[in-house]
Design a protein that fits this description.
The complex is a heterodimer of chains A (238) and B (476). With 238 residues, chain A is an alpha/beta fold. Chain A has helices at residues 9-13, 16-28, 44-48, 52-65, 77-89, 96-105, 110-117, 137-142, 148-154, 177-180, 182-198, 209-221, 231-235; strands spanning 2-5, 32-34, 71-74, 107-109, 126-134, 157-161, 203-206, 227-230. Chain A has 13 helices and eight strands. With 476 residues, chain B is α/β, with parallel strands linked by helices. The longest helix of chain B has 25 residues, at 21-45. Classes of the chains: A alpha/beta (238), B alpha/beta (476). Chain B: Residues 311-377 form the 4Fe-4S ferredoxin-type domain.
């Protein structure tokens, strides 16, 4: 099966290990991975800040980039959701709305793709440790992917789970919110890190690079011995 | 209290909120209590999503036919001997009510909870006439006794106060001598208030839902105070926002079910009362005179536009109780009597961007509000819509942000620019980099690194790795 990877700009620039893990996991599951070089960013930072018109060129570039793809898979619920938002943004545009609809229809978040399309729940991963899982808001509430990550994680051998209290609560990232309202964001991520600590887990797993950068940055600043892992890295552990 | 509750700047209000650990403790525990109860009440109903859709349909139908239902309501109130007044502005509403009060030569006025009377600053208008105005909702009463503090929550106005603080307010202002036990505090207020109901000349209530078909108003409380306000004084004035009505009893029942479950997680509140007009021959109680004041105050400007869904709101505060930002900053940070996500959408619409332009940004767009709303208002989308208006129509965003976003837009749409930018990121950031992290970032990163580390850009971008790896995926 041919999979076109939408790596996201955060993974491309800051977390290339996550991208590598995605490629390796999907290849092991029999997928042929393609990475179109012309992909950049889904446009969320400026779109969410209100610069809708200024972001449209970036979105059009992404639509064109993935036009010929069969499946578009992204290791981020938030960025995958953004593709699902494109038809709404280009509503009424005779050229771009149909193209946006076709992109949205074939775009999946990584775990959603593995569970729903590949129909795999055990990727054969193995990782020793006690973990907890952060459900990111856009992935669960907006994209509607709730079950897939836990289905996959439950089959990772050696991994024990503790439930995260207040797991439905945002970590305080919110893209530009984290710098625009830095003081509020700090309190939010601080509470999240406290909740993570309370679980006694030594690994915090998430499926969105943005949330993990936020939570990880706080854990690092506070010097907590908790490892931050993207779910792709967990699924790639053996 | 007018809608605007503070002259302080947004950032100063937020700082004050963040430093108030008493408030934050009270708010976070209340949020969890309300959330748990709300989810329980929704689950108990079974088909919550169907109820939500039904609620949404009713609210949208009413808004789409608002002129029709307002006319019907007005006709039916008049038929039952009530007086109806349409107030286009806050001033018109207040002055009409002042006239009624003056004609009655009223000295004492009791009020049940009403956000719209806060919005139009009614109490100040009545006090100017020399009237004594007494709030009878326990939360509002506590705030009024405590030097007229503004509400911090639309359902639980004194949410930010814990029981010890309430005890201290009563002690300091009213010589209260008992403990902070909620029962004793409530008993104290009850004894004080009972006398007020009996001696008041005019009663002013809010309105949860007016019913067009019968000309009735519905009041939902847990304290029964609204019933006393409406039943005991000779004159009753009910003030409602112009969108707060339903066609018939049938729709009222659906919305009340959604309201009580979403607001406090109860199947029903202790008192749900529907009142129709003044006392008629044969009635043993009720007011001799009934006035219904229907307030526009900016609502008709919202109607028919892109923000119309906010008028679906039934003031349950489920969005406030779910909001992770409200949780930390508290209601007073919003600077408006309408706080939380609904307040962040509504306040700039009713009060203008000059006072409230920051509110739409006080959200991570996490969608918890939208998910909690019992009438499916797309709150986080409306917050985003405000941002778009602020940037694109109002041109109010800071120049530095505009430049940054333009640069971002350019970089994200031009592979050549992105290539240079992302390749340069690592060397450009290297003076700030310590190992694999940045602890003191420049420019927009400063706010980030005040609280957390920022990752150093990868020396080898993912795309370079992908391009250079041997084909066939055999690279380890």
């Amino acid at each position: 099966m041919k999979v076109t990877l939408f790596a996201t700009c955060l993974v491309d620039m800051f977390q290339s290990d996550v991208g590598k893990a995605v490629v390796e996991v999907l290849e092991r599951l029999g997928c042929e991975i393609e990475f179109p070089e012309s992909q950049i960013c889904c446009g969320q930072p400026s779109y969410n800040s209100g610069y809708v018109e200024d972001t449209k060129n970036a979105m059009k570039r992404m639509i064109t980039t993935f036009e010929d793809a069969e499946y578009v898979v992204s290791p981020s619920g938030s960025c995958a959701y953004m593709f699902h938002e494109y038809p709404h943004i280009f509503q009424g545009d005779p050229i771009w709305e149909p193209k946006a609809k076709s992109l949205a229809a074939k775009t999946y978040e990584l775990t959603q793709f593995i569970v729903d399309v590949l129909q795999v729940e055990d990727v054969g991963a193995q990782l020793a440790g006690r973990a907890t899982y952060h459900t990111s808001c856009h992935m669960t509430r907006l994209l509607g992917v709730k079950e897939a990550p836990m289905k996959l994680l439950k089959n990772v051998k050696g991994l024990e789970f503790s439930e995260l209290s207040g797991k439905e609560r945002c970590c305080g990232f919110g893209g530009t919110f984290s710098v625009k309202m830095g003081n509020i964001s700090e309190q939010m991520v601080d509470e999240k890190v406290c909740n993570i600590e309370e679980t006694g887990a030594d690994i915090i797993i998430g499926a969105d690079a943005g949330c993990l950068m936020n939570i990880g940055g706080r854990i690092d600043r506070k010097g907590k011995p908790i490892k931050v892992m993207h779910i792709a890295e967990v699924l790639n552990s053996r | 209290m007018a809608m605007k509750t503070s002259v302080e700047k947004f950032n100063d209000r937020v700082d004050k909120g963040l430093q108030d650990s008493f408030m934050r403790g009270a708010v976070s525990s209340a949020q969890e209590r309300f959330q748990t109860r709300r989810l329980g009440a929704a689950e108990e109903l079974g088909n919550w999503e169907e109820w939500r859709s039904h609620g949404e349909e009713i609210r949208q139908h009413v808004l789409d036919n608002l002129d029709y239902y307002l006319f019907e309501l007005s006709e039916n109130v008049s038929k039952r001997g009530g007086h109806v007044y349409f107030a286009q502005t806050a001033e018109e509403a207040t002055s009409y009510i002042q006239n009624v009060v003056e004609k009655k030569n009223a000295k004492k006025i009791v009020k049940s909870k009403s956000m719209v009377t806060e919005e139009i600053n009614l109490n100040a208008g009545l006090e100017k006439l020399g009237c004594e105005v007494i709030e009878t909702d326990l939360g509002e009463y506590i705030l009024q006794v405590g030097d007229h503090e503004p509400p911090s929550h639309i359902v639980v106005p004194a949410l930010h106060k814990n029981k010890e603080q309430i005890r201290d307010v009563f002690k300091e202002k009213q010589g209260y001598k008992k403990t902070e036990k909620p029962e004793e505090l409530a008993l104290h207020a009850r004894e004080k208030l009972r006398q007020e109901y009996l001696t008041a000349d005019v009663g002013i209530t809010g309105c949860n839902f007016a019913i067009a078909e019968t000309g009735s108003i519905t009041l939902v409380t847990n304290e029964g105070n609204a019933d006393l306000v409406a039943a005991l004084p000779k004159t009753q004035i009910t003030v409602m926002g112009m969108e707060r009505l339903v066609p018939t009893f049938e729709e009222m029942e659906v919305l009340v079910s959604l309201l009580t479950r979403s607001a406090v997680g109860q199947k029903l509140t202790s008192y749900i009362t529907t009142l129709t007009g003044p006392k008629e021959g044969g009635d043993v109680d009720g007011p001799e005179e009934f006035h219904l004041v229907i307030v526009d105050n900016g609502r008709s400007d919202i109607l028919g536009g892109e923000f119309q869904p906010i008028l679906q709101c039934i003031r349950c505060a489920a969005c406030v109780n779910a909001c992770p930002v409200y949780r930390h900053v508290g209601g007073h940070s919003y600077g408006s009597i309408y706080s939380g996500p609904v307040g962040a959408v509504l306040s700039p619409l009713l009060g203008g961007y000059d006072d409230y332009k920051e509110l739409p940004y006080a959200s991570t767009l996490c969608g918890a509000c939208t998910e909690a709303c019992p009438v499916k208002i797309p709150l986080h989308e409306l917050l985003h819509k405000h941002r778009q208006v602020i940037v694109e129509k109002e041109g109010r965003s800071p120049v530095s942000e505009k430049l940054l976003m333009k640069a971002f837009g350019l970089g994200a749409s031009s592979p050549a620019m992105y290539k240079i930018g992302s390749k340069m990121a690592s060397p450009v950031m290297s003076p700030f980099t310590n190992g694999n992290k940045i602890s003191k970032g420049p420019g927009p990163l400063k706010a980030w690194t005040e609280a957390r580390e920022f990752p150093a850009p990868n020396k080898e971008r993912f795309r370079d790795w992908f391009k250079n790896r041997p084909k066939g995926g055999e690279q380890s």
